[in-house]
């Protein structure tokens, strides 16, 4: 196994107007700060690339879509500034997706936890397989889904968001996420998932880029304050992760 695979990666490929951003980490596609920074940058760069008409956001592997934050990095946080910086990584990814002038199509092939649910929520149209259960586990490890909360709530509403946040150990299946509006379509397997994505993407690459950019602005109306909001939320999480209560919870969670 190469070093890059051990450390994870973010790649972008461009083909016939479609920019595919793929991320990977060997720990169930959990995301350390370095990969979060690369992912936010990849989204921003793809948004400015005139050769890209539509973006697909996906992860590699056959199991989890994204297991959320890196527990090892969470345990290593020893001061508020470091904590805020780490949680700002997820904030930056969400804000990059929000500001990107291109439609971002989500491909969620497996389970999504915490920040993974936030990333799925930040896409403009999200496809999933029936294996793509979701969970906001933050409260179960002593924190809370503060940073991803605005993106999730925007997609599924306050009631569904509160259910996910409060019952933090409970998985919700893909059908639940479909009914709440997080997923637009759910497929039997990855093959059918990719066929569904391709069908929509081929329509979008032929659509008017200016019209799509205008629609994106309309869809995200009312979120102009999210730079400041998500920074405040990152500070909240950064403070909580310093407590012995949270560090003990994370240690116990890692052992499961």
Describe the structure in your own words.
The structure is a single chain. With 256 residues, the chain is α/β, with parallel strands linked by helices. The protein has one domain: 2-enoyl-CoA Hydratase, Chain A, domain 1. It is built from twelve helices and eight strands. The strands form two sheets. It has a six-stranded mixed beta sheet with strand order 1-2-3-4-6-8, with helices on both faces. It has a two-stranded parallel ribbon with strand order 5-7. β2 (18-24), α2 (33-48) and β3 (54-59) form a beta-alpha-beta unit. α2 packs parallel to α4 (80-99), α4 (80-99) runs antiparallel to α11 (226-240) and α5 (115-122) crosses α6 (149-156). The longest helix is centred in the middle third of the chain and has 20 residues, at 80-99. It is globular and about 55 Å long. The two termini are 26 Å apart. The mean pLDDT is 93.
In a nutshell, what does this entry contain?
This protein is an alpha/beta fold and about 260 residues long.
- Write out the strand line-up for the largest beta sheet, numbering strands in chain order: 1-2-3-4-6-8
Q: Write down the overall mean pLDDT.
A: 93
Give the N-terminus to C-terminus distance in angstroms: 26 Å
Number of domains: 1
CATH architecture: Alpha-Beta Complex
- Count of β-strands: 8
